[in-house]
Each structure stands twice: as structure tokens, then as C-alpha cells.
Design brief:
Elements (H helix, E strand, L loop, with lengths): L9 H11 L3 H12 L3 E8 L2 E8 L12 E3 L4 H6 L6 E2 L6 H4 L2 H5 L4 E8 L5 E9 L8 H40 L4 E9 L5 E9 L8 H10 L3 H22 L3 E6 L1 H6 L2 H5 L7 E5 L8 H13 L3 E7 L4 H9 L3 E4 L1 H4 L6 H15 L4 E4 L5 H10 L3 E2 L10 H10 L1
Parallel strand pairs: 8-9, 9-10, 10-11, 11-12, 12-13, 13-14
Antiparallel strand pairs: 1-2, 1-6, 2-3, 4-5, 5-6, 7-8, 7-14
Helix pairs in contact: 1-2, 2-6, 6-7, 7-8
Length: about 400
């Protein structure tokens, strides 16, 4: 093997590949072939047992499978870890400690190499092993050095994977705790018509009181990482509908519900919305979720539209995806993102882009709602451009249902 001048054999090229692409199964195969062994594996020490986590190779004399396990004290692994056996045994018949292991005769094991897998804190995960049924007297310390190098790579891979799994477990537990506590809580931000500044509806916004304190977008992104985004979104929709129900008994105001295309595609919304005045519901599709199949999305949206639900594209103007959403879902409402409405009274480029979207919406009788309005000047500019409705801190911050009633009474 000539590291400085290139590898001269197929086995050497396999070694390069395993270094550059450190997949554990690839590493095992590479080391097994390079050393001329029959089977290579990674074992994990779990209590008093040795568990096979990765297995590569096959033999007519023995069948090892991932998940197989056996007593640790009867294994080569324990003896290598505690130093009773050398890491390199070219011929087991020459080592009395090896011959005392039942597996040596039962498998049989003629040659054996094993290196402890140690994590960065010094703890032992298990062993990186390979064996052949026949002795391999040509095996030497140079081969053992190669074995140790790949064992170090493998230990790093496993340690990183376990750290990531622990992190996923923590994230999942956080989301499950929110759901178990009945969360998320919901606040409502008023939306007004710009023609007479009359309140016509609200957008339901999720809030999280749990630690760590962070934005709702981050909570939903974390839920998506652990496969709980749909469950969290459905919980938010149900909580919003429950909290808003008393308002509907008094006023026919619209309720905007944020939902991802994934939630719509996976279903569940139709049953929830069938129990409420669906013609007062606006589903706001964010552009931050990729859509793989727009035909399927439209197919899932149609039964909701048949109930009277209207569709809005949220965050328009903040990226390219919103335009794809608009063109393929043909929404009833386009919501201008805060990045577009901010300083629109003084920024001619923002005004031009907003004007283009307003003209575009007029072509299919769509409505434009501006988000993130923070000044009277922005509100006036949006009205002048022809925006139909608006929401933002200048009008009102998100609030509870009780605060909303007071807000209406003061107006």
C-alpha cells in the first residue's frame, strides 16, 4: 500500500474508498477482504452480553446476523478488552487462551483479529473484529495497524450516531411533553379591511411556554425532525378551533389556520373542519415546506374547498417557493410577507413587487393581505396600492380571545 504514490491493487483502492466514505458496512467489507478473512463484525457490549450490531461476510460453517447475541464472558471480545487475548491471533491453535473459548472449536476460528472500540471519553463500546476458519500465518503488525485505524473511524461513526440519536430522543420527548400538556397555546392576531379598517378575522398563532424559549417556527421544525410535525399541527388546529368557537357564536369572523402541505396531504383536516363553520376558515399554506407532488396536494385540498374552506398562500414575497404554491394551488388569498411590507412606504422596489402581486391576484379575483404592518405610513401605502386587508403590530399584537373581545369593544 503506497499512500504517497497511489494504491496499486483493488484492495488498496477499497481502503481509500472506505476512508473517504466511512460507512461502517463498507469499512467491514474492506478490512475483511484486505485481510483475507471470512467474517467481519462490530460487537456492542451490553451488560453481560455481546451483541452483533454490524456483520459483513458469510460462511457455509456459520451464520451470523445483526442482532445475534451471546454471553460476553464466553467471547473473544471480553478477552481482548481485558487483555487476556492479543488483538492479533494469526493461528488460534498456538494460543491456549483462544483454544479455551468454545467458539474456537465450534465455528471454528483459525485466525482472529479484534480491536476495542473506544469513544472519545475512553469508554468501551465493543469491538471491531474479523476471523477466518483457517489460520492466517501471514497476518502481521502492519495489518493490525490498518485494523486499528479503521476501528478508530468506526468508533467515531458510532459515537456520532449515538449522540445524534440521543439528541433526537431529547427533541421527541420535548414535543411529546407539549402534546401531553395540551399544547400549543393559541393567540389570535386581528386582520382588518383597509377600506374602512373594520376587523374581518384573525390568524391563529401557536405559542409555546416550555423550555427552551424560542420561536414557534423552531418548535415545528424540531417536531418535523422527529416525525411529530403533523401531530403538533393538528393539536394547534384543534386548540384554535376550540378557543375560537365562542366568538363564532357572536360574530361571523374568518379564522386563519396555519398548516403545512404535509398536513393536508396526510389527511385528518377534513374530519376536524367538518365540525365547524368551514366557510369561515382560511387555511394558510406556508412556503417554507417543500412540496413533492402538487397534484396530490390539490387533490387533498379539493374536499376541503368543497366544505367552503378558502386557501391562502402565506409569506408571499419571501422566496421562490411561494410563487410555485400560488401557480399550482390557485389560492383565494395571497399574504404578503413582512419582508415585503416593511418600509414599503419608502422603498420603491418593495412597492413595485407588491404592486405586481396585487395586479397578478386581480387577474383571478384573488385577495391580498399584508402581514407585519408596523407603522401608519406602511398601512397607508398598502391601502394606496390596493391591498385589501392587513395585520401587524401597528394594528394589534396577537392576543387571547378575551383580549380580542376587549379590542373589538374599544374599536
Amino acid at each position: 500500500m503506497q499512500l504517497a504514490h497511489g494504491f496499486q491493487t483493488t484492495a488498496d483502492n477499497d481502503l481509500v474508498s472506505a476512508i473517504l466514505f466511512p460507512d461502517i458496512q463498507r469499512i467491514l467489507r474492506t478490512i475483511r477482504v484486505h485481510l483475507g478473512m471470512d467474517i467481519a463484525f462490530v460487537s456492542h457490549v451490553v451488560g453481560a452480553e455481546r451483541v452483533f450490531r454490524y456483520v459483513e461476510g458469510a460462511s457455509s460453517l456459520v451464520e451470523l446476523k445483526v442482532g445475534d447475541c451471546g454471553p460476553l464472558d464466553e467471547s473473544y471480545c471480553q478477552r481482548v478488552i481485558d487483555g487476556r487475548l492479543p488483538e492479533l491471533v494469526p493461528d488460534t491453535s498456538a494460543v491456549s487462551e483462544a483454544m479455551a473459548i468454545p467458539a474456537t472449536r465450534e465455528l471454528p476460528v483459525g485466525a482472529h483479529m479484534s480491536v476495542p472500540l473506544r469513544f472519545s471519553d475512553g469508554s468501551v463500546y465493543g469491538t471491531f473484529c474479523c476471523f477466518s476458519h483457517a489460520p492466517r500465518p501471514a497476518l502481521n503488525d502492519r495489518d493490525l495497524d490498518v485494523m486499528r485505524a479503521f476501528a478508530e473511524i468506526t468508533a467515531h461513526q458510532i459515537e456520532s450516531s449515538e449522540a445524534q440519536q440521543r439528541e433526537r430522543d431529547v427533541k421527541r420527548a420535548r414535543i411529546e411533553a407539549v402534546l401531553a400538556a395540551g399544547g400549543p397555546s393559541i393567540l389570535f392576531q386581528p386582520i382588518i379591511l383597509l377600506s374602512d379598517r373594520r376587523v374581518v378575522g384573525v390568524e391563529a398563532l401557536s405559542r409555546f411556554e416550555s423550555e427552551p424559549r424560542r420561536s414557534p417556527d423552531q418548535w415545528f421544525a424540531e417536531a418535523a425532525e422527529v416525525g411529530l410535525c403533523t401531530a403538533l399541527e393538528l393539536a394547534a388546529v384543534r386548540n384554535a378551533l376550540k378557543a375560537w368557537a365562542p366568538v363564532w357564536r357572536d360574530m361571523p369572523l374568518q379564522l386563519g389556520l396555519n398548516c403545512s402541505p404535509k398536513l393536508i396531504i396526510e389527511g385528518g383536516l377534513k374530519d376536524v373542519l367538518a365540525e365547524v363553520p368551514a366557510d369561515r376558515i382560511v387555511l394558510e399554506l406556508t412556503e417554507h415546506t417543500e412540496v413533492d407532488d402538487y397534484l396530490l396536494l390539490n387533490d387533498r385540498l379539493q374536499p376541503l374547498r368543497d366544505l367552503g374552506v378558502r386557501v391562502a398562500i402565506d409569506d408571499a414575497g419571501s422566496g421562490y417557493a411561494s410563487m410555485r404554491h400560488i401557480l399550482t394551488t390557485r389560492p383565494d388569498i395571497i399574504k404578503l410577507d413582512i419582508s415585503l411590507t416593511r418600509r414599503i412606504d419608502s422603498d420603491p422596489m418593495r412597492r413595485a413587487l407588491a404592486q405586481a402581486l396585487i395586479g397578478f391576484a386581480a387577474g383571478f379575483d384573488g385577495r391580498i393581505v399584508a402581514e407585519g404592518v408596523e407603522t401608519e405610513q406602511e398601512l397607508a401605502a398598502l391601502h394606496e396600492l390596493g391591498v385589501h386587508a392587513a395585520q401587524g403590530y401597528f394594528i394589534a399584537r396577537p392576543m387571547t380571545v378575551e383580549a380580542f373581545r376587549q379590542f373589538l369593544s374599544h374599536r
